[in-house]
Design brief:
Structural class: mainly beta
Largest sheet: 7 strands, mixed, barrel
Strand order of the largest sheet: 1-15-14-19-17-16-21
Distance between the termini: 11 Å
Shape: globular
Number of domains: 1
Radius of gyration: 18 Å
Helix content: 10-25%
């Protein structure tokens, strides 16, 4: 076990697929982190059929900032006037929406939000907010009978990555003549420092104060990792390099980071810089 493992940074993505926030502290819930009263991936963009869209479909989502200001979700993008959507107030009736294989309920954020997104992305889209009266359970094959559930995240409440894992990947990229990549390519929730490279693969539980997190499944990486989060330009790295040493036949792709669920500490506060301890599976 490493002697000085810490929370290097925390990240919350109010709108699935858009830019994230990096608060100094965040509230922990069974469904993941939250800040300023908005949970991680509590909002999602859907097409006319109610099916989710992400940077896989629209890389320009990477250029949309989503922040909370004075009780409203504010979206902004280059060349566009900001859009403000109040978080409180009477909600519209929820509707069926689809994220991967899950059909859940979401509140439509209204025509102004739909118009703003549709113009920016040149497609008919709408913004929805997760209906917390419903639960979207995590896959019991990995989460067991924990009752773990999430909002609009791909599969699990948290994604954990070690700083040292990115450092090793960047060493390999540099050796091949490629530039280093920032952590935001991988859109983690919790970044740890002090672990050996890729040690998170073998971590069973992470304890941070009152919080206990359990790593349950490697994160299989998709082409979103090839999108520059500052410019929305799409390339080929890091998937090509990851494929040389991180192919996991059992998972069916290259992996980077671990999906995690919350075993204890619902309602606690996590802080960047906080000490953490880990227990391994072996």
């Amino acid at each position: 076990m490493a002697d000085d493992i810490r929370v290097a940074s925390l990240h919350v993505y109010p709108v699935k697929g858009c830019r994230g926030l990096s608060p100094a502290s965040a509230r922990l819930a069974i469904t993941g982190l939250s800040t300023d009263g908005v949970g991680d991936r509590e909002f999602m963009i859907v097409d006319r059929d109610g099916r989710f869209v992400t940077q896989r479909d629209f890389p320009r989502l990477a250029l949309i900032d989503a922040v909370v200001v004075d009780g409203a979700l504010v979206l902004s993008a280059p060349g566009c006037a900001p859009l403000s959507t109040p978080l409180a107030g009477k909600a519209a009736n929820s509707r069926n929406v689809v994220v991967w294989s899950s059909e859940v309920r979401g509140f439509d954020a209204g025509d102004a939000a739909a118009s703003w997104l549709s113009v920016w992305l040149a497609s008919e889209l709408r913004l929805v907010r997760f209906d917390r009266k419903t639960k979207r359970l995590c896959n019991p094959e990995y989460a067991g009978d924990s009752g773990a559930h999430t909002l609009f995240a791909d599969s699990y409440p948290l994604l954990v990555i070690g700083e040292e894992s990115l450092a090793e990947l960047n060493e390999r990229l540099a050796a091949a003549g490629h530039r280093a990549l920032p952590m935001n390519r991988f859109r983690p929730c919790i970044v740890l420092s002090g672990l050996p490279p890729f040690a998170e693969d073998q971590v069973d539980t992470i304890t941070i104060g009152d919080a206990v997190l359990k790593c349950v499944k490697p994160c299989v990486r998709c082409r979103v990792t090839t999108t520059d989060q500052a410019t929305a330009e799409v390339g080929i790295e890091p998937l090509r390099t990851l494929g040389e040493f991180r192919m996991d036949a059992r998972m069916g792709g290259v992996t980077f980071g671990m999906n995690a669920i919350v075993l204890a500490g619902d309602g606690s506060t996590l802080r960047a810089g906080a000490a953490a301890t880990v227990d391994y599976r072996f």
